[in-house]
Amino acid sequence: MHMPDGLINAQVSIGAAVIAAGAITVGLKKSKGTLDSQTAPLAGLVAVFIFAFQMMNFPVAAGTSGHLMGGALASILVGPYVAILVMTVVVSLQALVFADGGLSALGLNLLNMGIVSIVVSTILFAGLMKLLPKTRISIIGVSATVAFISVLASAGAFVFEYSLGGNATYNIASVLISVMSVHVLIGIGEAIITGLTIGAILATRADLVYGARKFLPAHNLLIKESVVA
Fold it and tell me: 10-228: which CATH architecture?
């Protein structure tokens, strides 16, 4: 999913960079009132967690591998606006420090792995939770589901960008089949990691999970408070 330099032409790359910059600006403005003494350290920890897991590839199929994308996980843990900033830091560091993704493709990679996955997962999470019982099991299940779908959405965004300005000669139908089939498997890994992570945090400090605050009663959010006291 980390696109190298030159895969997509300059026009589409610049357009993606403009969209990404706009989303980052919105994230900065909207997150000012939410980065308190609890959320700011959590956002840093989420960024470190996603960064580390993006460095750990797992085998997928036919010699390919995948890694955690993290957009859905970030949006559920710290909210969509802070998640945009988290993913901006992660994807930018990957490109600048480890050359994982080209610098000219940074806007494309931010758009696909960060913004698209965050927008899709945020909308789906809220919509599905309105339909399901407001329980921890529902939150874990929905988290895993939207994580899976967010990977497919990001892969679909790449295919769309390639159809607009791909510099390679691969047939778009072949690209679609290849990319989507691989990312179905990557999405399963994303769903497992996201579900397990959200479940672990819900079991200890549910109040830290942004996505749980609206749907779980206040006394369930701090279920461990009496034990700690």
Answer: Orthogonal Bundle (1.10)
